[in-house]
Amino acid sequence: MNQFFIRLNYLNIFAALKIGRLAFKVLKKDLKNIAIQGVSGSFHEEATRKSFNNQAIEFEFCDTFEQVFLNVKEKNYLGLVAIENSLAGSILPNYGSIQSHGLNIIGETYCEIEQNLMVLPSTSLEDVQEIWSHPMALSQCQSFLNQYPNIKSVEKEDTAKSARIIKQKKLKNTAAIASHTAAEIYGLKIIKRKVQDHKKNFTRFLILSKNKTAISTPNKATLCFSVANQTGSLAKTLTFLAENEMNLTKIQSHPIIGRQWEYFFYIDLLFNSHKKYQYVIANLNNYVSDLNILGAYKNEINI
User: Fold this and answer.
1) Hey, which residues are catalytic here?
2) The whole model's pTM is what?
3) Which of the listed CATH numbers 3.40.50.1000, 3.30.70.260, 3.40.1670.10, 3.10.580.10 matches domain 220-293?
């Protein structure tokens, strides 16, 4: 009888282990590996969780945007990068990196950004000698920083990483500008809330993939091209887009490396008819050179 129960227990343990392995395989299959710039508590992490709501995520935290692009390209991870901010403008190098690494934009998300000044619990504003944050975050808070000319602004890799280092090294004379989530994670005290120049502060993030898989029913596209250095070349291109009901929501120029005083134009298009979009893509080379479709995806303007 004892041998029977021992054998039964072994069978139960074996079955539980088998179920556990199956559950792990299912979980691993559904797990999304996503590379972002920054550490836990960063705005990139918040934007990723917003975009991939209720999905299991394995984060690859990167110090630089270039590391994000390489993870997407070499490890076939998804990536999420900031591309523009309503106060600080576009992050131009990211456009070039998406193009040079041959990556595909598969989506976008917009997040409201609230910048907060945070310190160790025992530190007051009068103790602060330096304020650390990412350059884009500092530029969003320039009016606030100008009020304290004796406090040095120091550019760092990341907002949340600045908060983490202050906590780890117990820097009593240093503050960070970061999210309220970063303050909670790293046990810092917020002494000034919403220090950005305008209370309505939004950042647009792009979701990147190595794969060129088409998105079903896209209504937005990001393109890159150059035009001849001739009178009216760009105007003719924009007229062609307008005549085919392409809503130009953004245009950005960037120098072409190695080609003096020549420029790439990065544009965002909104459209209601995918058929007309396909017609535009098929005929756009009649007006431009170096055409590159960086991605066709769904517009997300729910901010």
Assistant:
1) 203, 205
2) 0.86
3) 3.30.70.260
